Amino acid sequence: xxxxxxxxxxxxxxxxxxxIASDFECSxxxxxxxxxxxxxxxxxxxxEVMFKRIAGLSYIRKVDMIESPYKLxxxxxxxxxxxxxxxxxxxxxxxxxIIGGPCTIDPDNPGLYLExxxxxxxxxxxxxxxxxxxxxxxxxxxxxDFKSMDIILQAKSETGLPxxxxxxxxxxxxxxxxxxVDVLQIGxxxxxxxxxLKEVGNLTASSNSSVxxxxxxxxxSPNEFIAAAEYIVAEGIPNVLLCPRGTTPALDGxxxxxxxxxxxLLKNKTWAPVIVDPSHSVGHADFVKACxxxxxxxxxxxxxxxxxxxxxxxIGDDPKQAITPEKMKEIIECCLAVWGNRYSA
Length: 345
Ligand code: PEP
Ligand code: MN
Prior knowledge:
Helix content is about 35%, strand content about 15%. By secondary structure, it is an alpha/beta fold. The radius of gyration is 21 Å and the shape is elongated. It binds phosphoenolpyruvate and manganese (II) ion. Phosphoenolpyruvate (PEP) binds near residues 135 and 188.
């Protein structure tokens, strides 16, 4: 990892470094942070002479060798002080970042989504979620409708809140970027779809878009999860949020196996913020509050909670696991109390 003295290398400086790297069969990738750029060495970076030649250049502050399977996501990497911002919200600094909204937008009832959005803003959420396209286990279940994009965009413009929308393939990704979706969600089923992860990184490189990467239901170790995020960041976009959302096998009674307790393990290994999704973890509105508070106690930087003005009128997961805006307000208050106290123990 190459850290320049200034905020960015000039084109000539990049060329000079690329020439050195290519002598050692390596290449250079620019990673654009909010305030400065760092440069990853792709290839076998353990070549001492290459290291010394690059470190000796007058415009280089330092060159770090990170022996890690995820050298950009590693908390020792030059991105360690990178902060992810969604809209004006800097994650992990003052308050837990709360994303709220229905699982699935009902295109035939836009009013329900818009009412939910306003009530959730009132309850204190910082961003809105809403499924336009849905990954459904059953192919005959409702699959989503692009008409819903207009509804969530309307909610964005009426509330001023950033929006989070799941994309499952390349076409959806392009449509979502074009529409100005702030947080591109990669769901649990695509968490190991490496081609899609690369494409997300590539199409959003040098942009302020963020990616909420859910933990795969079948992902085993924290390393595998972080390595999936590395695929995105390695294309040049460092704005990745890691989202534990429950894994298999399910505990009898919960939809998945709640995994908010993975948060401190992730934080030991990577600088990326952790946003826990309690809704899919437990799969029932009654259990969401406890899981949310536990996540914040474990050190999560925020939550993504399915919520709806009138859950029984919702579609997708909403009748079962969405909470109401009143419940959201109560959960946010409890989480703020835990947030304020968690490091004093
Ligand atoms: C969702 O967020 O509604 C969703 C389908 O999530 P997951 O990928 O966690 O199942
Ligand atoms: Mn859902």
